[in-house]
Design brief:
Elements (H helix, E strand, L loop, with lengths): L1 E6 L2 E4 L4 E9 L4 E9 L6 E7 L4 E3 L7 E6 L4 E6 L8 E9 L6 E3 L3 E6 L1
Parallel strand pairs: 2-11
Antiparallel strand pairs: 1-3, 3-8, 4-5, 4-9, 5-6, 7-8, 9-10, 9-11
């Protein structure tokens, strides 16, 4: 079992910045990757950014150049630095942890609201 706790969401004006944090606990030795997804009202959950245990990153095209995913292995924490926020970034952001194994398993945090005003 893996527990994920997010923090850092809030309300910000367009062009502003926020940093999300996600602390992991439990069976974290078996994590293949961690990252962030988001879900806006009436839309499907979508990938924002991920970082693997080897440090490789992947970003949605819509956030490339504006968002940065990073991790602090000593603290078992993954971060999402969001700069140049746009109203279309408004969503509930979910931390995700993907395990190794067949099949792999996804763990999810409770979500944190990010609202960008125009």
């Amino acid at each position: 079992q893996v527990q994920l706790v997010e923090s850092g969401g809030g309300l910000v004006q367009a062009g502003g910045s926020l940093r999300l944090s996600c602390g992991a606990s439990g069976s974290i030795f078996n994590l293949r990757a961690m990252g962030w997804y988001r879900q806006a009202p009436g839309k499907q959950r979508e990938l924002v950014a991920t970082i693997t245990s080897g440090g490789s990153t992947n970003y949605a095209d819509s956030v490339k150049g504006r968002f940065t995913v990073s991790r602090d292995s000593a603290k078992n924490t993954v971060y999402l630095q969001m700069n140049g926020l746009k109203p279309e970034d408004t969503a509930v952001y979910y931390c995700n942890a993907l395990t190794w194994g067949l099949p792999p398993f996804n763990y999810w945090g409770q979500g944190t609201q990010v609202t960008v005003s125009s």
